[in-house]
Each structure stands twice: as C-alpha cells, then as structure tokens.
Amino acid sequence: MAGCAECGARLAERQAGFGAIDGVDPRAMLARIRTGLDAPAQAPLPARLSGWMRRLIAPMAMVATAAVVLLVVVPGQQQGTRMKGALALHVFRLTGDHAEEVVSGDTFAPGDRLRFVVDVPAEGHVTVLGVEASGTLYTAWPLEPGVQTRFEEGNGIELPGAVSLDAQPGRELLHLVHCPLEVGPPECTSAGAGEKPVCPEGCVMTPFILEKGG
C-alpha cells in the first residue's frame, strides 16, 4: 500500500460497496436484499441448488449487479435505486418535524408514526395492507373511507396521512397492492401470518417488513 499511488483509493472504493456509485442508495439496495432473504422458500431442490452455486460466485455477481444498477439510475429521480417501471413502497418514520426513510427489516417501536411514498408503474388503484403476527389483515392506507386511491403512473407519489403503530410486538408485513382500473380498489383477504394477502386477479403487490418491539 505504501508504495502504490492508486491502491489506497481503490481499497476505499471497494470498502464503500454500492455507496461508491453515484446516485445509488445502499439502504434501498439492502431493503430489497432483506425482503428477498425473508421471503418463504418455495423453490424446488434444483432451483435451490442453483441458488447455492450463485452464492459461490457472489463477488462476480455483485460486480455485474452494480453495472446493471448504473444503467437504470435516471437523473432527477428521488433518492433510492429501483428498476424502471417497478412497483415500490417507501416508508418514512416521522420524528417531530423530521421524516427519515427506513428500510424493510428495520425495528420499530409502539407509537412510531409512518408515512408512505409509492412508485406506481401504471395507472390504477393502490392500497397498503398490513398483516399482523397473528395473521390479522388490516388497512394501513387509506386511513379513512372515501379517500382517492386512483393514481397515474409515476414515482415518488406521497400518500396523505400517517399511521401510528400499536403496541403488539412481533413481525408484521406491509404490502403495497396495485390493481388495474378495471379491477377497482382492491378487496383482499388474509392468507395467514407471514403470507401475502389474497387479492383479485390482475393485482400485484410488493412487501415491506416491520420488526415491532414490545
């Protein structure tokens, strides 16, 4: 290191990981990774074996992923990294007059107030549903009936109002649900604890994990 003029800068760049890439939010990348790791494993054995092989070549895969990320970061987008046209739920924790974006898998306390910002890939109706540790399904947004749930395609759409977390501890899953115009506002039912809700055909959803302390 002492005799190499470029080695120090290269080492610092590698230690920074995705944070060294201009326009990339490493917290958002971590949220997607955590969500994928926490999803129930449903793949057959051959697919899982293939996944283990991919982990063996993780260093090369990360380099390739970084190259793909660079291609989809668009100047002028809000903070965070996302695939173009993807449905995304951004959660912000309110502290006084300050709002900080949190990532899937973070720990939350009773009384924490959350606001939602969404990326919508096409015009349609959206709602945010929660599944408690008991499997009970509830509506996290909209907070009141009669609220407009139809939105045009776009990124960084703020959903009005804030939800306050109760004191029930355990893991909860939030699901941003998007349904086509012909389906209308989604009417979904619970599939049990840790499972995504059952919604009308044509609707898509993306999860967000809340680890609630007592």
Task: Give a verbal description of the structure.
The chain has 214 residues and is α+β, with helices and mostly antiparallel strands. The protein contains four helices and ten strands; from the N terminus they run ααααββββββββββ. The strands form two sheets. Strands 3, 5, 6, 7, 9 and 10 form a six-stranded mixed beta sheet that branches. It has a four-stranded antiparallel beta sheet with strand order 2-1-4-8, with no helix packed on it. A hairpin with a 5-residue loop joins β5 (124-131) and β6 (137-141). The longest helix has 15 residues, at 58-72. The N and C termini lie far apart (49 Å). 20% of the residues are buried. The model is unreliable at 56-83 (pLDDT under 50).
Task: Note the beta-strand portion.
Answer: 25-35%
Indicate the structural class: alpha+beta
Give the SSE order as H and E letters. HHHHEEEEEEEEEE
Largest sheet: 6 strands, mixed
Average of pLDDT? 78
- Head-to-tail CA distance between termini: 49 Å
Total helix count?
A: 4
How many strand units? 10
- Described by the principal axes of the CA atoms, the overall outline is globular
Which percent bin holds the helix content? 10-25%
Radius of gyration: 19 Å
The unreliable regions are 56-83
List keywords for this structure.
6-stranded mixed sheet, 4-stranded antiparallel sheet, 4 helices, 214 residues, single chain, 10 strands, alpha+beta
